[in-house]
Amino acid sequence: MVGEGLPNATIILIGEQPGNHEDLEGKPFVGPAGQLLDEALAEAGIDRKKVYVTNAVKHFKWEPRGKRRIHKKPDAGEIAACRPWLNAEIAALHPKIIVCLGAIAAQALLGSDFRVTQHRGEFLKSQLAPVVMATIHPSSILRAPDEQTGHTEMKRFIADLKKIGQALVSTSSPARGAFSSSHVNPTSRARSRR
Q1: Which 3-state string (H, E, C) describes the chain?
Q2: Which of 64, 97, 115, 163 allows an S-S link to 131, with CB 3.0 to 4.6 Å?
């Protein structure tokens, strides 16, 4: 499944893989996690209609459980096989901002050693776009162990997205000094078409 959004979108949101709802409807981020993403974007002041949404893995990997299709984590080979399509989307859009939603998306673009837990909400150096950030995938909020944790994680997710909105508004090309230098993946430069 390819992404969806404006061909001149300045922000690309990259998730892990389509879920059951997305697979059935043929569009990214239309299930429960997509609804949560829509809420968070609206709260952060970012118009979903003006961003491009896609996934690092283009197919829904699942296993049957009764009558349900349950998400199964994609492996490194599947991520690598889908990378040319993701690269083509990024190259075609030339975004100002890329947001990796979750570990799979972040590791697909920033390297297998990247940890969202260590660099969440930071602006990262990358040749992929002037602004690159990784945060959690909205599905992780849905899997929170209790309501309070879910509420706290949603607030943090919105705060991460607000940083993106501010970066877009404040400047079209942020100063490199504003970015974290603690994680730079040298292979991301080689993979980029910029």
Answers
A1: CCCECCCCCCEEEEECCCCHHHHHHCCCCCCHHHHHHHHHHHHHCCCHHHCEEEECCCCCCEEEECCEEEECCCCHHHHHHHHHHHHHHHHHHCCCEEEEECHHHHHHHHCCCCCHHHHCCCEECCCCCCEEEEECCHHHHHCCCCHHHHHHHHHHHHHHHHHHHHHHHHCCCCCHHHCECCCCCHHHHHHCCC
A2: 97
| Bridge partners of residue 52, in order along the sequence | 12
* Chain segment 113-140, per-residue pLDDT in tens: 999 999 999 999 999 999 999 999 999 9
**pLDDT at residue 11 is higher than 50:** yes
To 5 degrees, how large is the angle CA 90–CA 95–CA 100?
A: 70
Q: Report yes or no on whether pTM surpasses 0.90.
A: no
Cα–Cα dist 124/119, whole Å: 8
pLDDT digits (tens, 9 = 90+) for 137-171: 999 999 999 999 999 999 999 999 999 989 988 64
